[in-house]
Specification:
- The protein has 220 residues and is of the alpha+beta class.
- It contains eight helices and seven strands; from the N terminus they run ααββαααββαααβββ.
- It has one domain.
- The strands form three sheets. The chain has a three-stranded antiparallel sheet.
- The longest helix is centred in the middle third of the chain and has 23 residues.
Length: 220
């Protein structure tokens, strides 16, 4: 289990890599088609991947649903008067980015707790994308920490150049676009693990390791 990130610092993914290659070696020496994860882990993986995909889609939305279209924004002045102008809804953008960062961090926790090599591989790839985009992200107030988690500086994000923000967060080839693709893969692999958990044991019982969080056996 990968429950801490002490060894994943300064761009090093040593622990994730070690776990991934260990699981790859194990899978090559075993023909048993059962999940490496228990039902609680699989449930968390599916939920985290789904939440991350939704948070990413919110930032990637275009047209009338886009957060990056200017609209009439009314602000209150110190003298009590109000000013209305066309601008970006920076409060809404910050909230969406914060939700995305929180979902990303939850997915990182869930993925790193898995013993399935496909999940570990996807999680490793996701952290690699974050490192690759770290310089661009830092310009808009998003920091990739030494533990690979994201943090958001509200003031920096709200004052950032929106062209730069959009290039990082609102394109299929952006950081968020890459993470959205990875979230889809993680959810798919979590579903595969759930299916693999439903296996026949040596006593001819059908064992449901994953079934809405319940574990039970039944004969033919």
């Amino acid at each position: 289990m990968i429950s801490d990130y002490a060894s994943i610092k300064n761009g090093s993914y040593k622990k994730l890599l070690k776990a991934y290659y260990a699981k790859t070696k194990d899978s090559q020496s075993s023909s048993t088609s059962t999940s490496a994860d228990d039902s609680a882990t699989i449930t968390k993986l599916k939920s985290s991947a789904n939440s991350l995909k939704k948070a990413a889609d919110k930032l990637l939305a275009t047209g009338k649903d886009s957060l990056f279209e200017k609209k009439e924004i009314t602000t209150k002045n110190e003298d009590g008067t109000t000013t209305t102008k066309m601008d970006y809804d920076r409060d809404a953008i910050y909230k969406a980015v914060k939700d995305f960062a929180d979902s990303y961090n939850s997915m990182l926790d869930a993925g790193s707790s898995s013993d399935a090599k496909s999940i570990l591989r996807d999680t490793l790839s996701m952290t690699g994308s974050a490192k690759g985009y770290s310089n661009l992200l830092s310009k808009i107030g998003i920091t990739v920490g030494s533990n690979n988690k994201l943090s958001v500086d509200e003031d920096v994000l709200k004052s950032a150049n929106m062209t730069t923000v959009k290039s990082a967060l609102n394109d299929t080839l952006s950081f968020v676009g890459k993470v959205a693709d990875k979230a889809t893969q993680l959810e798919r692999h979590a579903n595969i693990e759930a299916e693999k958990a439903n296996t026949y044991n040596q006593k001819a019982k059908f064992t449901y390791n994953y079934n809405s969080g319940n574990i039970f056996n039944s004969f033919f």
